[in-house]
Every structure is written in structure tokens, then in C-alpha cells.
Amino acid sequence: MPTTIEERIIRPARNVMGSLRLPGDKSISHRYALLGGFAEGTSRFSNFSTGADCASTLACMEALGAKVHTPENGVVEVTGVGGRVVPRTMPLDCGNSGSTMRMIAGLLAAQQGSFTLIGDPSLSRRPMERIRQPLEAMGARLALTGGHAPIHLEGATLKPIDYSTPVPSAQVKTCVLLAGLQTPGETTVREAVRTRDHSELALRAFGARLTRNLNSVAIAGPQPLHAIEAAVPGDISSAAFFMCAAALFPGSGLVFDSLGLNPTRAALLDVLTELGARISVVQLEEKHAELVGMVQVAGSAEGLRSASIAGPLAAQLIDELPVLAALGPCTSGGIRIRDAKELRVKESDRIALVAKNLRAMGAEVEEFDDGLDVPGGQTLHGTEIDSAGDHRIAMAFSVAALRAEGETLIRGAESAAISFPEFFDLLDRVAER
Ligand code: S3P
Questions:
Q1: Whole-structure pTM value
Q2: pLDDT per residue as tens digits for the range 330-346
Q3: Best probe residue, ligand 1, of 27, 191, 339, 392 (max atoms within 8 Å of C-beta)
Q4: Where does 7-23+233-432 sit in CATH, by number?
Q5: Which of 11, 108, 179, 218 has the fewest Cβ atoms nearer than 10 Å?
């Protein structure tokens, strides 16, 4: 995590134009780092995420005995521990990354020894009971601090479970699958809403067998993993900020090369189309079962309409909701978000912070326990934005600032580096003033 506090001034734009090739998907990079670090042999990943979060996962795997080497820009080579991590007395620092903490806990639950997982103040406020429950049911011991990190974890020989996740969470699903990978017998995870399936695809790519049904996945352990070579697709959740920026301007045009288009991640394309943006996908291919393609986004001459996001869609779009909400004032019919209570326990309370910052920009917004109503037809005014150290808030309001009257100051802009260090440079490149 960057240590200096940065401010950025965002000036309004006339248009957004250009082509972008984005750094590797954060979710996929986490999984490749974890599985590569655990597998037998040396894996090689190109276009690995440049975000601080994935660096936290790599550092944890290195502390657990994996060898990490970065021979050239964007390439990461990981030599795995072959299924047995090195015991640690020092805490494993997961930084700001909930994915690192929750997923690595599943990997360690089946290992001999005790481990301590720590995180920064934001991560130390996030709920961890959701991983304690299934991992303890399998036989590990987890001591939390008031439901949060630090986590003291005692690994054990586990027994398989059949687990239904109480909230849709790909991190929790992955946590249980990584424990199940090492557990004799069949471990099943069921979910009411199908969350992103990168772990299932990555586990198979590393040679594991698992069985998938509509809303469940089962893994019979123990199974070894074998190193792979892979190019990580561009991060669609990072692209989301630019797609939304393009949607804001009638004459805009952005092209995204080699973008990850896994169907469990690509719902944003449908919502932007519903809003009126023109989107086309070309050159689709599969890389280790992940869909990758070129995407063109253009604004609509008639402006943006309205969108309502609720039910399973809210879970699938969870990381994109802040920037979609920030578009609300510039639509004709507004943006309605419900069933998104999970937003309150992300890197910040994203419902409260989106509402606070939209109001600071002069917009009306109604806050609900599980969402927001942002009416359309409103003018945004440049102001000071409090990102509270949350990368997706800093970036969402930098996008809104392109259509504001006057300049906007983004406080805590350094947080963008958690997932997307190149964000402000690329925004400057494509924003025409
Ligand atoms: C992620 C899953 C989501 C998402 C996060 C990344 C993942 O979290 O918000 O940014 O890579 O599995 P939850 O699983 O807690 O919903």
C-alpha cells in the first residue's frame, strides 16, 4: 500500500477517446499467485496485476516458502512449495486485501502449524466470521478479534463439508475450495447466486478436478497442483471506470484490447447497454478457460437513460456499483441500486461514501440500508472528494469529475494503486479537454 497521501485534481473533460490495454485482472492474479505458490514447479504469468493487493498475495506466498521472481515488466515467475508451506512465526501481512486474507486462510487451514494473518486498518474492520465458520466446521481453529483480523489460525487434518454460503462471496467459496483441495473426501460449496468463478477455472488449469453444477462446486481431495504458463486477461473491473467515463460523453470512443470477459464478471456491459452506451465485443478467445476479447465502447448521442440493479445482478456487479452510482446524476432517469448490503463491508462503507460524495458534488441521493437511489438530470459541481483510502471510491469520483462543473480534488488518490496504479495517467491520456 502506498504510504504517502496524495491529492489529484480532475478537470472536466469534453470527451474520452483512445485505446487501452489494461494490467492483468486482480481476481485472476490473486488466484494464480496462490495456486502457483502452492503447486509443484515454476509457473510464469504475464500481464500480472500491478496492484498492491496482488503484491500482498505474492509476498504472503513468498513468506510461506514459494519463490517469486519478476524477470521483466508485468511477468511474474512463481516456484511453488509443492503442497507443503513453510511454517511461519511472523504474521502474514495481507495489507488492504480481503481476497488475500480470506483465500489464504483456506489454503493454510489444511497445513500443519499455526499462522497469524494481519491487515491494514481497513482490512482489520472487515468481517472474517464468514471464513471462520466453514473452516472450523472442517476442523481448523481460527481465533478472530471481535469477528475481525488479526486471525490466529491452527491448521489440521480436515474433514470434508457440504457448505452453503450465507452471503454470496467468491472469496469465501474459494477459501473452502482451497481447504477442500487438501482434504480427503468431497467438499461441496453451494451458493444462492453464482459468484465469479475464477477459482474453479484456475484450479482446473493447475490440474485439479472439480465438479460443477448450476450453483454448486465440489472438489475431492487431496489433489496436487502443477505449474502453468498463463497471460492474465486485462481487468474488467479496472476497465469499468473507463467504460463509464466513455458512457458519459456522446462522441466518445474507447477500445480495450485483451480484456477479461468471464461471464461472471461482464454484467457491466449489459447495464451500460441498457443505459444507452454502444458496446461491441470482437475477437473473443479462451485462455485457460477465461474469455478474453476486444471491447469497443461509445457513448450515445441521446445521452444515458436509467438502470435498476437488484437481486443477483447486484452481487455480480458489486465492485462496479460505486462508479455506476456516480453516473446517476448524468442519466435522464437515474440509477437505482438494491440488494447490495455487502457494499457496506468492502474497503469502506461504499454506500455511505458514495452518498456523501455525491451530495458534496451537489447531487441529491437517497441512501438505503442495501443500496441507493440516485436521481437523474442533476448537475455535478467540482468539490473535494473524501475517498477514505478506498481505491474504487477514488476512481469512481474521478470519473464523475469529468462531467462536473469546475475542478474536483480527490483526496486519498494514492489508494488507486491498490488495484490500478496506472489509473490517473491513463485517465489523463484518454480525457480530451
Ligand atoms: C473478489 C470477490 C468479491 C469482490 C472483490 C474480489 C474475488 O468479494 O468484491 O473485489 O476476487 O473473489 P466477495 O467475495 O467478498 O464478494
A1: 0.98
A2: 999 999 999 999 999 99
A3: 27
A4: 3.65.10.10
A5: 11
